[in-house]
Design goal:
Strand 2 and strand 3 form a beta hairpin. Helix 14 runs antiparallel to helix 15. Among the domains are: 101 residues; 74 residues. It has 20 helices and 19 strands. By secondary structure, the chain is of the alpha+beta class. Strands 4, 5, 6, 7, 8 and 9 form a six-stranded antiparallel sheet that branches. Strands 3-2-10 form a three-stranded antiparallel sheet. The protein has a two-stranded antiparallel ribbon with strand order 1-19. The chain starts with 32 loop residues before the first helix and ends with a helix.
């Protein structure tokens, strides 16, 4: 494709949320009957989600409390303090969960972009670098780890990916699960969900600047004028009006708690939802048109970029009925915004990371949910055992002690000096009860709870590096693998979400990176590489195109089990060494790049692998070549083949010379044994043999055969003369 096939075009600009303008009759377009009916439908979605998910969200919050060490209920604390004990927590949950979180952070996953056409290999490589650039700017790895931590602890984490005006429009950030609700009836496939909801308390001045046409209505909402919002008697009123766990009334949602009025705020509801509609889709003219990323995208009348493509006949339109994605915002009963999604990919901009989901109703839960009971039991048994060891139980007959209260107080002292009546101890009227065996039983049960916690989470003592009864390396690896297998489902859900996130980032790049720009990509050892995108002035034509044609995002999974990777590396390394020792150096050299590629902690690993493959003439499994690279490689292969053929010819000539030299030596020996030749003849033969021998050594040392292979003819003449003399 040359530069003439990619003419100048308008820049794509994100569509911002807007409230619309007031009509000439003073009515806001969102106040029409049709739009109010839509608002009521969206509010029904919201109500259903809050009711269905309220109980589970409360449990999710308790799960997070257990991670943070908030594990004792108020009644338990009162009992402990009542008997003079400190409310202790033995938080084994945190260390167990941290092992899973640390495993994710240590084993980052990689990705690549694959082309849909062979001619777009270089463009796909450029898009891979572009996604790395977006993640570098957005701290993508760290944000993804934080969302994964929410999923492990509470059961659900959220990533938001979108675009906004600015030098770098694409953003990537984490959202708190407490602000999010989802379509629990939509199943496991997020593309089948009808809606995703986000709610946040927002300062009034911020909301008014977002929706200036609704500034007065928003101010009324924040001032708490409850006469605008009729009370619904059938709705229960919760004590915590701003809680995300309750089934709140509309009044609660609008007015907040008793002190919210001190800071003027409103609760904004943002819902992305799907609804069927008849739309026009753009169909790109042919494969040579450099706007392939706009193929089958919804045509938006009035959008300059789409109008340009249709007007320039780069795309044609066709009608269809499909599920379209829209975004709406409201506060209370005030409809603030409703429009078609600004994104061509038509997915929701929120991506969940689930840990586990209940089969009964699809509600999420994390690792902690199943270990809360043994953790609570562990705390109680440890506290009970401490109480037993610290207390002294005494049974006595009436009259054995004059002052039981003073006797009890003295027994509680570490330097006890208790007085009893004469004969009370010797006659057995006072009996000291020993419950230490019971304390030992509680401690044993607490240890069982600790083991149960690790087993449920899939974190064995071998994973934590503790000494166990597994002494051999094979036994330790087997138990580590058992733990990794248990947590494998969690990581698989994580990979699935990352796949969806990558597809979204790629789609946004193909939509918004439509002009020439230069990006910086940081590689191994933080080395910088600068890549020019959509380069229309390159000598070879339109290069590094983002918008030429659509591509596919692929997750390159890394095995998160470090011991398995090490075992695989050791096996492969041993195999390569064995091949080299057996004289199969070429095979060992061909596998060398795979050995180095498995050294995860090796600095500059990618550069080393690339150099090894270049020396061996190999191509990586995730690499492709442009036509220029293919032609260059073919030339190199032809030159290498010609060199190999020349070297083979030289070897054959050397072999012939060696054979003739041996024949000359045999002739000399025969002549010496027979004694029929004169001394002069023998001297001549010996001289000739020496001459041949010296000639061979000179050829080997100086490499004359490689430079002038015609010298072999002279050697042939010398050997023939020697044979004639010897014969």
């Amino acid at each position: 494709m040359n530069k003439s096939t990619a003419p100048d075009r308008p820049t794509a600009v994100p569509i911002e949320a807007r409230a619309g303008k007031v009509d000439s009759d003073g009515q806001h377009p969102l106040d029409s009957d049709a739009m109010q009916d839509r608002l009521r439908e969206l509010m029904r979605y919201r109500r259903q989600a809050r009711v269905a998910q309220a109980e589970n969200r409360e449990q999710m919050a308790i799960d997070e409390d257990f991670y943070d060490g908030i594990q004792l209920e108020a009644d338990d604390i009162n009992i402990l303090t009542g008997r003079g004990q400190d409310p202790l927590v033995f938080n084994l949950t945190k260390n167990t969960v941290n092992w899973i979180l640390g495993t994710e952070r240590k084993s980052r996953i990689d990705f690549s972009v694959k082309p849909r056409r062979k001619t777009d290999i270089q463009d796909a490589k450029t898009k891979t670098k572009g996604i790395k650039y977006v993640q570098d700017l957005s701290y993508g790895e760290y944000i993804r780890s934080e969302a994964f931590a929410d999923a492990v602890r509470a059961g659900l984490g959220w990533i938001e990916i979108g675009a906004h005006p600015g030098d770098e429009p694409i953003y990537y950030r984490k959202e708190n699960w407490r602000y999010m609700w989802f379509d629990h009836l939509g199943g496991d496939d997020i593309n089948a969900w009808r809606y995703v909801l986000r709610e946040k308390w927002t300062d009034l001045d911020v909301a008014q600047n977002m929706f200036p046409a609704r500034a007065d209505a928003l101010e009324l909402l924040s001032s708490g004028v409850n006469s605008l919002y009729p009370y619904l008697p059938e709705d229960p009123i919760m004590s915590d009006n701003a809680s995300e766990f309750d089934i709140e009334t509309d009044v609660d949602a609008l007015l907040g708690g008793a002190y919210d009025g001190l800071r003027e705020r409103v609760k904004l509801c943002e819902m992305w939802y799907r609804t069927p509609a008849r739309v026009k889709l753009m169909q790109i003219r042919d494969d040579q048109t450099p706007y392939g990323t706009r193929h089958n995208v919804i045509f938006r009348p009035g959008e300059e970029e789409h109008e340009y493509l249709v007007r320039g006949k780069y795309a044609t339109l066709y009608d269809t009925v499909k599920m379209t994605t829209r975004v709406a915002m409201w506060a209370g009963a005030t409809f603030l915004h409703d429009s078609l999604t600004p994104y061509d990919h038509e997915s929701f901009p929120f991506f969940p990371i689930f840990c586990y989901r209940r089969r009964r109703d699809g509600m999420p839960y994390g690792i902690i949910r199943d270990i809360r009971d043994p953790q609570s039991d562990l705390n109680k048994r440890r506290s009970k055992s401490l109480s037993i060891l610290a207390m002294h139980k005494v049974a006595y007959e009436k009259g054995a002690i004059d002052d039981p209260a003073a006797f009890r107080a003295e027994m509680d002292r570490p330097d006890t000096l208790a007085e009893a009546n004469a004969g009370a101890l010797t006659s057995g009227k006072i009996h000291f009860i020993n419950e230490q065996p019971l304390a030992a039983a509680h401690i044993q049960l607490a240890q069982d709870d600790a083991k149960f916690i690790q087993d449920i989470a899939g974190v064995t003592d071998e994973n934590l590096g503790k000494r166990t009864n597994a002494t051999s390396g094979k036994a330790i690896e087997a138990r580590q693998l058992q733990g990794h297998t248990t947590s494998g489902i969690v990581f698989d859900n994580y990979y699935h979400s990352f796949q969806q996130q990558g597809e979204c980032i790629l789609a946004l790049m193909e939509q918004y990176w439509d002009q020439e720009k230069e990006i910086r990509v940081t590689g191994d050892e933080r080395k910088d590489e600068f890549v020019k995108l959509n380069d229309m002035n390159a000598p070879e034509g339109f290069t590094n195109s983002i918008l030429r044609w659509k591509s596919d995002f692929i997750v390159s999974k890394q095995d998160f089990r470090e011991t398995i990777r090490l075992a695989m590396f050791d096996t492969l390394n041993t195999l390569v060494q064995s091949l080299a020792g057996a004289g199969m150096g070429n095979v060992a050299l061909a596998l060398l790049d795979m050995v180095v590629d498995m050294m995860d902690e090796l600095p500059g690993k990618d550069e080393m692998v690339a150099r090894i493959r270049k020396i061996n003439g190999q191509e990586g499994p995730d690499e492709g070549m442009t036509p220029d690279e293919q032609a260059k490689k073919q030339q190199e292969q032809q030159a290498k083949m010609a060199q190999q053929q020349q070297e083979q010819a030289i070897k054959e000539q050397m072999l012939q010379l060696e054979m003739r030299l041996k024949e000359a030596e045999i002739a000399t020996k025969e002549a010496d044994a027979a004694g029929k030749q004169s001394k002069a003849a023998m001297d001549s033969v010996s001289a000739m043999v020496k001459k041949v021998d010296m000639f061979m050594k000179a050829m080997e040392t100086a490499g004359m055969i490689h430079v002038a292979p015609q010298i072999v003819d002279g050697a042939d003449t010398i050997i023939e003369q020697a044979q004639q003399i010897g014969g």
